[in-house]
């Protein structure tokens, strides 16, 4: 089993729709969680951190479920510009960068 | 506001050739990293430098060496390139390596093909 797993997609949804995808992680000792966005042939960029209480940034909402070991990303009122690959990142410990695991990404395509 | 600058952006090597990928950051970050990204596998850590003067192996260090030249610069060297090293390479930096609370800043990547 991979340490961090994401549905690769692609998710193909119409503009204005709400879309959600999950990321599961295997290490119950994981401490911090993040969503990154990566546009085609570009570098990843930090989208948002995921806090235990959940957090919202505009149209984006991130949730953490420690009991089931997954994090989620919800995008409301999706825009064409939201088309990208979304990477889940899990930090299993604070003492070493080698504990930081990137998921392989979920592709999202928004159609007009 | 350059952030993290990587050179070159593209490179084609023949098997057995050597090359160095350069990375520089202007954010006064302590920690720097080299990742490779392959289809369906996510980003995998090659080497990192928690602070100036230190380097450590990541998940996939074989075939690579690194040098933290100073606080700004962190280079990745392929001594004898192999086709399995065909990949997209990203350099990244962060304020501290102990947590990702501040996030990584990535360079724009180097697309390397080994033939």
Can you tell me about this structure?
The complex is a heterodimer of chains A (112) and B (115). In chain A, β4 (32-38) and β5 (44-50) form a beta hairpin. Helices cover 0% and strands 54% of the residues of chain A. By secondary structure, chain A is mainly β. In chain A, strands 2, 4, 5, 9, 10 and 11 form a 6-stranded mixed β-sheet that branches. In chain A, strands 1-3-8-7-6 form a 5-stranded antiparallel β-sheet, with no helix packed on it. With 115 residues, chain B is an all-beta fold. Helices cover 0% and strands 50% of the residues of chain B. The mean pLDDT of chain B is 92. Classes of the chains: A mainly beta (112), B mainly beta (115). The A-B interface holds A 4, 8, 31-32, 34, 42-46, 49, 87, 89, 91, 94-98, 100-105 and B 31, 33, 35, 40-45, 48, 50, 56-59, 90, 97-101, 103-104, 106-109.
Question: What topology does this entry show?
Answer:
The complex is a heterodimer of chains A (112) and B (115).
Chain A: E1 4-6, E2 11-14, E3 19-25, E4 32-38, E5 44-50, E6 55-57, E7 60-65, E8 70-75, E9 84-91, E10 100-102, E11 106-111
Chain B: E1 4-7, E2 10-13, E3 19-25, E4 31-38, E5 42-49, E6 56-57, E7 64-68, E8 74-78, E9 87-94, E10 105-106, E11 110-114
Parallel strand pairs in B: 2-11
Antiparallel strand pairs in B: 1-3, 3-8, 4-5, 4-9, 5-6, 7-8, 9-10, 9-11
Key attributes of the depicted protein:
heterodimer, A: 112 residues, mainly beta, 6-stranded mixed beta sheet, 5-stranded antiparallel beta sheet, 54% strand, B: 115 residues, 7-stranded mixed beta sheet, 0% helix, 50% strand, globular
End-to-end Cα distance of chain B: 35 Å
Mean pLDDT across residues of chain B: 92
Largest sheet of chain B: 7 strands, mixed
| Secondary structure: helix percent of chain A | under 10%
- Alpha carbon gyration radius of chain B: 13 Å
How much β-strand is present in the residues of chain A? over 45%
Order of helices and strands of chain B: EEEEEEEEEEE
State which percent range the strand residues of chain B make up: over 45%
**Outline of chain B:** globular
Number of strands of chain B: 11
Oligomer: heterodimer
For the secondary structure, the number of strands of chain A is 11
Low-confidence stretches of chain A are none
Q: What's the gyration radius of chain A in Å?
A: 14 Å
**Share of helical residues of chain B:** under 10%
Largest interface: A-B, 25 and 27 residues
Poorly predicted ranges of chain B: none
């Amino acid at each position: 089993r991979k340490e961090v797993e994401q549905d690769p997609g692609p998710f193909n949804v119409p503009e204005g729709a709400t879309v959600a995808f999950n990321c599961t992680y295997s290490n119950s000792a994981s401490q911090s969680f993040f969503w990154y966005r990566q546009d085609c042939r570009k570098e990843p960029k930090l989208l948002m951190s995921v806090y235990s209480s959940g957090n919202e940034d505009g149209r984006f909402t991130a949730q953490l479920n420690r009991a089931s070991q997954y994090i989620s990303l919800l995008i409301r009122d999706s825009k064409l510009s939201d088309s990208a690959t979304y990477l889940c990142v899990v930090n299993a410990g604070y003492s070493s960068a080698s504990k930081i695991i990137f998921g392989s990404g979920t592709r999202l395509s928004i159609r007009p | 506001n350059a952030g993290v600058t990587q050179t070159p952006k593209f490179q084609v090597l023949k098997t057995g050739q050597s090359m160095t990928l350069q990375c520089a950051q202007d954010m006064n970050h302590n920690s720097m990293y080299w990742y490779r990204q392959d289809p369906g596998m996510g980003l995998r850590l090659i080497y990192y430098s928690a602070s100036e003067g230190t380097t450590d192996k990541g998940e996939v260090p074989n075939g690579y060496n690194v040098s933290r030249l100073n606080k700004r610069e962190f280079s990745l060297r392929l001594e004898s390139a192999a086709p399995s090293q065909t990949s997209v390479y990203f350099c990244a930096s962060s304020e501290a390596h102990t947590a990702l609370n501040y996030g990584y800043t990535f360079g724009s990547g180097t697309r390397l093909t080994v033939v």
